[in-house]
C-alpha cells in the first residue's frame, strides 16, 4: 500500500541558475500525489558537459547535506553541463521526528524546524527523521529482504539507504528509490553524490565512500582536499553494503557513485536535541563547507574520468563559512 496525500513543501527559493523544476514522480508515475513525491531542481548550462545528480535528505535529520543542496539551488549557476539536485530525497521522512536519533522504538513526534534570517528575510528548514513516516507505509515486516537477498531488521524497509535500487511495485520507500534510479538512467547521469552525516565518534565521520569502480577518483579528491585543510577518510563500498546508494548506483547504472559523511553532534549516543547549529568543534557551517568543497572537488575530476566536465559560477567564498551569522546570509 502507498499512502496518497499532497507531498510536503519546503521553503526553497530557486536562484537564477535553476532552469527547470520537475517532480520525482516524473520519473515514476506511481509516486504522483503520494508523500514520497518531491521536487527535482535542474540547473543546466549553455554548453553541454557532464550530468551530475546531487542528493540530500535521504535521512532528513542529516541537515548539513540539505543546507548544501539549498546553496546550489539558490546561489549556483551552471555554465557547462547539467546539475540535478534533489534536496529531500525521502520527503516522507521530513514529515515526522523521533525522540532518539536511531531507535526504531523511539516515540513519534512532530518534525522540528531550524529558523534563521537570510538575505531575503526569515527562513525555516525542516528537520525530520531517518526513515519514512510509518503512517505512510504499511506495518514493518519482521525482516526486510533486499532484492539481493540480504536481510535487514524490518524497520529498515523504511530506510531509503537500505532499499536501493528499489522496486517499481514495492512499498513507498522502494518506489522512491526506483524513481531515483529511473532519473539516473533517463537523464544519463555521469555521477551521483549522496550527502549524509554520522555521529562525531563514528568511523564514518568525515569520510568519502566510493563505489569500487571510482575509488581512484575518490583518492585523488581526498588528496586535493588535504591542501584545503579538509581532512577526509576514504573507503570503498564492499559487497556487504547492499542497499546503500554508493554501492547500488555504481553497480546498477553507468554513473560514478559517492557518499559524503560529516560529523553531526545530534547523532551521538544519548543526545536528545534534533539538531545542533553551533557546536564548538562541529558547527553546521563547517559541515556544510566540507560537503560543498568535497562535491566541487569531485566534479573537478569528471573531465579526467568520464571525458565530460561541469563548470559552476557563483560558488560562495570560504570566508562566508566562518560563523553561523555569515553562513545563513548565503541563502536567498
Task: Give an overview of the whole structure.
The chain is of the alpha/beta class and 332 residues long. It has one domain: 3-Layer(aba) Sandwich (Aminopeptidase), CATH 3.40.630. The chain is built from eight helices and 15 strands. The strands form four sheets. Strands 1, 2, 3, 4, 11, 12, 13, 14 and 15 form a nine-stranded mixed sheet that branches. A two-stranded antiparallel sheet has the order 5-6. Strand 9 and strand 10 form a beta hairpin. Helix 4 packs across helix 6 (284-300). The longest helix is centred in the last third of the chain and has 17 residues, at 284-300. It starts with 19 loop residues before the first strand and ends with a helix.
Relevant terms:
Aminopeptidase, single chain, 332 residues, 8 helices, 9-stranded mixed β-sheet, alpha/beta, two-stranded antiparallel sheet, 24% strand
Layout of strands and helices, then pairs:
Elements: E1 20-23, E2 39-44, E3 47-55, H1 63-74, E4 77-86, E5 97-98, E6 108-109, E7 112-118, E8 121-127, E9 143-145, E10 151-153, H2 160-163, H3 172-186, E11 191-198, E12 207-210, H4 215-227, E13 233-236, H5 245-252, E14 256-263, H6 284-300, H7 302-306, E15 311-313, H8 324-328
Parallel strand pairs: 3-4, 3-11, 11-14, 12-13
Antiparallel strand pairs: 1-2, 2-4, 4-15, 5-6, 7-8, 9-10, 12-14
Helix pairs in contact: 1-6, 4-6
Amino acid at each position: 500500500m502507498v499512502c496518497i496525500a499532497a507531498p510536503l513543501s519546503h521553503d526553497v527559493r530557486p536562484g537564477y541558475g535553476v532552469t527547470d523544476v520537475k517532480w520525482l514522480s516524473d520519473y515514476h508515475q506511481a509516486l504522483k500525489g503520494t508523500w514520497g513525491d518531491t521536487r527535482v531542481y535542474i540547473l543546466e548550462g549553455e554548453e553541454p558537459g557532464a550530468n551530475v545528480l546531487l542528493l540530500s535528505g535521504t535521512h532528513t535529520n542529516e541537515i548539513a547535506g540539505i543546507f548544501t543542496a539549498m546553496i546550489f539551488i539558490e546561489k549556483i549557476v551552471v555554465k557547462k553541463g547539467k546539475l540535478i539536485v534533489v534536496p529531500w530525497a525521502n520527503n516522507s521522512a521530513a514529515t515526522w521526528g523521533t525522540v532518539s536519533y536511531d531507535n526504531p522504538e523511539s516515540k513519534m513526534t512532530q518534525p522540528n524546524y531550524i529558523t534563521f534570517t537570510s538575505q531575503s528575510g526569515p527562513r525555516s528548514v525542516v528537520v525530520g527523521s531517518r526513515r519514512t513516516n510509518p503512517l505512510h507505509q504499511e506495518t514493518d515486516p519482521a525482516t526486510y529482504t533486499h532484492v539481493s537477498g540480504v536481510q535487514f531488521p524490518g524497520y529498515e524497509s523504511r530506510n531509503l539507504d537500505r532499499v536501493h535500487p528499489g522496486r517499481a511495485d514495492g512499498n513507498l520507500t522502494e518506489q522512491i528509490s526506483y524513481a531515483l534510479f529511473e532519473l539516473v538512467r533517463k537523464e544519463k547521469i555521469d555521477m551521483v553524490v549522496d550527502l549524509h552525516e554520522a555521529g562525531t565518534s563514528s568511523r564514518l565521520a568525515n569520510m568519502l565512500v566510493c563505489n569500487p569502480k571510482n575509488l581512484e577518483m575518490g583518492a585523488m579528491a581526498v588528496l586535493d582536499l588535504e591542501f584545503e585543510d579538509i581532512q577526509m577518510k576514504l573507503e570503498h563500498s564492499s559487497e556487504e553494503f547492499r542497499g546503500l546508494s554508493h554501492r547500488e548506483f555504481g553497480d546498477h547504472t553507468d554513473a560514478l557513485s559517492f557518499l559524503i559523511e560529516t560529523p553531526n553532534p545530534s547523532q551521538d549516543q544519548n543526545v536528545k536535541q534534533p539538531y545542533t547549529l553551533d557546536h564548538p568543534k562541529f558547527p553546521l557551517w563547517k559541515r556544510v563547507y566540507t560537503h560543498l568543497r568535497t562535491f566541487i572537488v569531485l566534479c573537478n575530476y569528471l573531465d579526467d574520468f568520464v571525458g565530460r566536465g561541469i563548470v559552476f559560477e557563483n560558488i560562495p567564498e570560504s570566508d562566508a563559512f566562518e560563523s553561523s551569522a555569515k553562513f545563513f546570509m548565503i541563502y536567498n
